[in-house]
């Protein structure tokens, strides 16, 4: 209810289960029950919000004019479906509690999501429902007052590998050279040697360019640095390299810097706490925001761990290889733990775009064709459009010119 009324619509509400108090109230009022009391605005409730635990739910997609919807409410309801149960189902990530086969990195597969299967993944459906709901409320209660929010655009730079070749240990460099030779990757070998001789030429080292671009465009930007020990999945520069440490501190002078948690930290909360503490000590300020390696979110364990480690905000809610709104909303929300039946004190900031989802495209025009539609609807509902780019792709070669694409996206969507 708070996500719908307070965070999206900017309307203050109160609740009562006492019939007498409800009848006495002279202002706008809604009943959310099986049967209306009088002639008030009525939404017929589904059983979902009155249950405990997880149940296998059969969902049938209907249409509310041009918007897909589910949990049909019948003709007497002023809204043809239970909007609150449908929103709860999406933002609680109810379907991720249900049995499913994870992908090779242990993630919930996008193709098993209701949004992907019913072709509304690219739409902020929760917010579009809320906007349409507000129109119906104002027809009945024109005196409703609301605090309007504003569209926000945030660029997130995810740094899990700050440098491709530079600042590696002698052993790792020799190992890389031998690997390049064994696979006849002569161009990569040439680049490796060139960077070894002049570290400034490292292809991933675009940080000065990025900071200057962000100053020029004046958009909100966040950098998430991995600050972890070396492991199978975490192969960044050593956290003890002075030039790497200086890089993080210099970026923190101009932008928000927080933690891109390692793969290892998702297996050990002690490791997560240590990474958080190390980074906080380096930049001399609290580290409150998190992103998980490979966008791995295990519902609800990941958020339980983040709460225990005293993170306040997370920016991992999205899919790596598919564009769209994983939780169906473009508005930040607090995670609700269904197992514990409690709202956790961590705010989830969904991202709509990860740069790896662009690998399927051959031209910039194809990217903008998809993003333009998402931008229009996100701006229409005054939501948040968060995009994630990695310095790895920004520094790599591809048929898409990544730095040009990134600049074009910032200038096209930041206002």
Fold and architecture overview:
- With 415 residues, the chain is of the alpha/beta class.
- Helices cover 35% and strands 15% of the residues.
- The protein contains 14 helices and 13 strands.
- It has helices at 2-9, 19-24, 83-91, 114-117, 125-140, 170-182, 186-197, 207-217, 242-252, 269-283, 301-308, 364-380, 391-394, 402-413; strands spanning 30-33, 41-44, 62-64, 67-69, 152-159, 220-225, 256-261, 289-292, 313-314, 333-337, 342-348, 353-354, 384-390.
- The protein has a 9-stranded mixed beta sheet. A two-stranded parallel ribbon has the order 1-2.
- Helix 1 (2-9) packs across helix 5 (125-140) and helix 6 packs antiparallel against helix 7 (186-197).
- The chain is elongated and about 80 Å long.
- 37% of the residues are buried.
